[in-house]
Design goal:
Elements (H helix, E strand, L loop, with lengths): L2 H14 L7 E5 L5 E9 L5 E6 L8 E4 L5 E3 L30 H45 L1
Antiparallel strand pairs: 1-2, 1-5, 2-3, 3-4
Length: about 150
């Protein structure tokens, strides 16, 4: 593949990119380390994005071309610590012009939450019975221990 082919391919990929403010990405910093980052701004010509490296001061923020090989989808180059595999990432940057999601999101997910609660209610009832049985057993064992003394 020639350099011209690579430039054309890169330009085609940049046209297909649809970055938005608040989006999380993996970005290679200026010392070639992949870090989690947040899109803080998208240029009016939709060719560059202002990147904020999560957890770093704003002085490290930088404008990067859409077509840059330094930009990758979130969690494609960075990984969670093996010591906290179940912890979800949380935003560390305030993005004042991020898209508003609105109250409608709750209405969309509420039926699913309700269905989930209905499904686990019997399991919680069974758990309660097991806990009560365990408490009774512990009380009985304690009484038996006191009688022997």
């Amino acid at each position: 593949m020639t350099m011209d082919d690579m430039a054309t391919r890169s330009a085609d990929m940049a046209e297909r990119c649809n970055f938005f403010v608040g989006q999380w990405l993996d970005v290679k910093d200026t010392v070639n380390q992949w870090l989690e980052a947040t899109v803080m701004e998208v240029s009016a010509d939709r060719k560059t994005v202002l990147i904020h490296y999560n957890g770093w001061p704003t002085r490290w923020d930088e404008w990067i071309l859409f077509s840059s090989p330094r930009i990758a989808p979130f969690r494609s180059r960075t990984v969670h610590s093996v010591h906290s595999p179940f912890i979800s990432p949380s935003p560390v940057s305030l993005v004042p012009n991020a898209p508003f999601t609105g109250e409608e999101d709750v209405r969309i997910v509420l039926p699913e939450v309700n269905l989930m609660l209905q499904r686990i209610a019997p399991l919680l009832g069974q758990l309660q019975v097991l806990c009560e049985d365990q408490l009774e057993l512990e009380a009985w064992e304690q009484e038996e221990g006191e009688e022997k003394e």
